[in-house]
Amino acid sequence: MAFELPSDLHPDMGPVAWMLGTWRGNGHGDYSTIDAFEFGQELIFTHDGRPFFHYMARSWIIDPETGEEVRKAAIETGFLRCKQTGMGVGKVEFVLTHNTGIVEVWIGNAEGGKLEIVTDAIGVTETAKPVQGGKRLYGNVEGDLLYAYDMAAMDQPLQPHLWARLQRAKG
């Protein structure tokens, strides 16, 4: 599916413009403190012409055999900001809040259909699980959005946690 660059896109957002739109697909989760699981997910990146994207993600646990939803899972929302530093290259800031009581500031770089970020600051509420850090990699691969999320939490070292392949939704 062809992607058209919006005419009102802020120039600084060029290095991450490929992320705009709604993405849906499935992924896998694993961590040393939990059982492996399969999930469905929807990511939405929108813009209004200013130098940021609004981001919204929701996921649900699925039965690996039937693909049916078992229960609701994570929700996160935030703002992705990019400052273009060269042709198609940008410094990125990503502020995320989670339904689990976690707030994160991520920093990194975008270039050539790839976004790589690491946590710069993390805040947690009294009831949130302790998270010490993370690394996220997003990539445009064959027109799909692939991502991997490594997490350090619950006194465990940084390790793979989530990975998924999402397709751009039509319309």
UniProtKB/TrEMBL annotation:
Any idea of its EC number? Answer: 5.99.-.-
- Which CDD domains does the UniProt record give? lipocalin_heme-bd-THAP4-like
Note describing how the cofactor binds: Binds 1 heme b group per subunit, that coordinates a highly solvent-exposed Fe(III) atom.
Q: Does the keyword RNA-binding apply?
A: no
Q: Which UniProt keywords apply?
A: Heme, Iron, Isomerase, Metal-binding
Q: Which GO terms describe its molecular function?
A: heme binding; metal ion binding; peroxynitrite isomerase activity
Q: Start and end of every THAP4-like heme-binding domain?
A: 13-168
Q: Please tell me whether the keyword Ion transport is annotated for this protein.
A: no
- Check the record and name the Pfam families matching this protein: THAP4_heme-bd (PF08768)
Which coenzymes or cofactors are required?
Answer: heme b
- Pathway involvement? Nitrogen metabolism
Motif GXWXGXG, per the record, lies over 21-27
What is the top EC class of this enzyme, as a single word?
isomerase
Ligand binding (heme b)? 33, 129, 161
Q: Which reaction does it catalyse?
A: peroxynitrite = nitrate
Q: What does this protein do?
A: Heme-binding protein able to scavenge peroxynitrite and to protect free L-tyrosine against peroxynitrite-mediated nitration, by acting as a peroxynitrite isomerase that converts peroxynitrite to nitrate. Therefore, this protein likely plays a role in peroxynitrite sensing and in the detoxification of reactive nitrogen and oxygen species (RNS and ROS, respectively). Is able to bind nitric oxide (NO) in vitro, but may act as a sensor of peroxynitrite levels in vivo.
Q: Which family does it belong to?
A: Belongs to the nitrobindin family.
UniProt remark on domains: Forms a 10-stranded antiparallel beta-barrel structure able to accommodate a hydrophobic ligand in its interior. In fact, this fold hosts the heme group, which is located in a wide surface cleft.
Q: What is this protein called?
A: Peroxynitrite isomerase
Originating species: Nocardioides jejuensis
